[in-house]
TrEMBL record:
This is Macrolide-specific efflux protein MacA. Residues 251-327 form the CusB-like beta-barrel domain. The chain crosses the membrane at residues 31-50. Residues 87-239 form the Multidrug resistance protein MdtA-like barrel-sandwich hybrid domain. Residues 343-402 are annotated as: Disordered. GO terms for cellular component: efflux pump complex. Belongs to the membrane fusion protein (MFP) (TC 8.A.1) family. It comes from the Bacteria. Residues 356-368 have a biased composition (Low complexity). Residues 140-191 form a coiled coil. Keywords: Coiled coil, Membrane, Transmembrane, Transmembrane helix. GO terms for molecular function: efflux transmembrane transporter activity.
Length: 421
């Protein structure tokens, strides 16, 4: 028994007999499977490389759709809110401020006293002017009496000269005295007129000791305190700044010279302020000024927009960013601007295998004046079809098509993306 077992082990080890035949068949099958796998992988690799080589020059196009909607052509500008009908109130006379009766944001009415300057000196000046006027009026009476006297003396001298009772020299002296009397009367009257004007000026200055409001409105600012001395010399000192009504403001914006041709009176505008970033306020262009201004070598024109501030949220001095609607086109056919700028790529290099590369776009004829070229894709997704269209207004992102052989939803080409191998 032991001898038989040992013989089988030796045969199995040497690969002879039944056990040896089976072992050789297993080894041969294993090598055939490996060889077959290598062949299959080679075929797959060859086909993959061929497919990659065939697609290497095939561009992949980026597309968009023609849409229908509203197109707004706008002009952007920045500016500052200002009070409507703002008035600066100053002092026309010099003196010490005795009282101030109003404060910031207080409503005032026309003729209301805002402040008062100490009138003592002004009253003294008025009294002095009145006294001077009285003196000049008395001087007129004295001159008139002298004139009456010299008139009578002249008449008497002339009568006596006719009778030969007085010398010609005496008549001439009488005439000179009469002339001097007339001049004295005229001078006295002139001095009286000057004194009268001084009286009127003093009275006027006395009335200006009370600073009154010229309008119905609200106090925007106050730059004076009781006890302060103001001097109305070469420039009137500003004491108060008033506004007619903060329920209506104006927005002064700077329009760039390249955009001013699209801005005109009556256009609607929206604007935002930093105080209310989530709110849009409405306004309207009231005027576009013709005077050009320059800032940092940039030429601009000032436009005035009216603003309804009935809720009093806005305040003078706020910085605003306005968007003025210069054109509004409703329910029009729109395409992206990039679609009108797209030009198909030019193929270069040796031709690839059959079927490789994109179909060449048809040769495009020269465009007529005012026309643009638009491209669509053929059914195979590779052939470009050029279309001639007439563009209209643009908002910088989309362009209106006034004439085009396409409709809403048409796919248009905007760009091309090369497939990198």
């Amino acid at each position: 028994m032991k001898s038989e077992i040992a013989t089988d082990d030796v045969a199995r080890t040497l690969g002879v007999g039944a056990h040896g035949a089976r072992s050789r068949w297993l080894r041969r099958s294993k090598w055939w499977l490996i060889a077959g796998g290598v062949v299959v992988m080679g075929v797959v690799a060859v086909r993959f490389v061929a497919a990659r080589a065939g697609r290497r020059d095939v561009p992949r196009y980026l597309t968009a759709h023609a849409t229908r909607g509203d197109l707004r052509v706008t002009v952007s500008a920045t500016g500052t809110l200002a009070a409507l009908g703002a008035v600066e109130v100053g002092s026309e006379v010099s003196g010490r401020v005795q009282n101030v009766y109003v404060d910031y944001n207080q409503k005032v009415t026309k003729g209301q006293v805002l402040a008062e300057i100490d009138p003592v000196q002004l009253k003294a000046e008025a009294t002095q002017a009145g006294a001077q006027l009285a003196a000049n009026q008395a001087a007129i009476q004295t001159a008139m009496a002298t004139l009456t006297e010299t008139t009578q003396s002249l008449k008497r001298a002339e009568a006596q000269a006719t009778d030969g009772l007085v010398a010609a020299k005496d008549v001439e002296a009488a005439r000179a005295a009469f002339s001097r009397a007339e001049a004295s009367v005229a001078s006295a009257k002139a001095q009286a007129s000057l004194a009268s004007a001084t009286v009127s000026s003093s009275a006027w200055k006395l009335t200006k000791a009370k600073i009154v409001s010229p309008i119905d409105g609200v106090v925007l600012s106050r730059s004076v305190e009781p006890g302060q001395t103001v001097a109305a010399t070469f420039q009137t000192p500003i004491l108060f700044k008033l506004s007619t009504d903060l329920g209506a403001l104006e927005l002064n914006v700077q329009i760039d010279e390249s955009d001013v041709g699209r801005v005109r009176e009556g256009l609607e505008a929206d604007f935002r302020v930093d105080a209310y970033p989530d709110r849009v306020f409405k306004s309207r262009v009231r005027a576009v000024r013709n005077e050009a201004k320059t800032s940092s070598n940039v030429v601009y024109y000032e436009a005035i927009l009216t603003v309804d501030n009935a809720d009093h949220l806005l305040r003078p001095g706020m910085t605003a960013t306005a968007t003025i609607t210069s054109e509004l086109h409703s329910n029009v056919l729109l395409v992206p601007n990039v679609a009108l700028r797209f030009e198909p790529p030019t193929k270069s290099g040796p031709p690839g295998p059959p079927g490789a590369g994109a179909a060449a776009a048809p040769a495009s004829a020269p465009l007529a004046k005012g026309k643009k070229r638009l491209y669509t894709l053929g059914p195979d997704g590779r052939t470009l079809a050029p279309l001639e269209v007439t563009p209209g207004a643009t908002d910088g992102t989309n362009t209106e098509l006034t004439e085009a052989p396409i409709k809403e939803g048409t796919t248009v080409v905007t760009d091309v993306e090369e497939v990198v191998p």
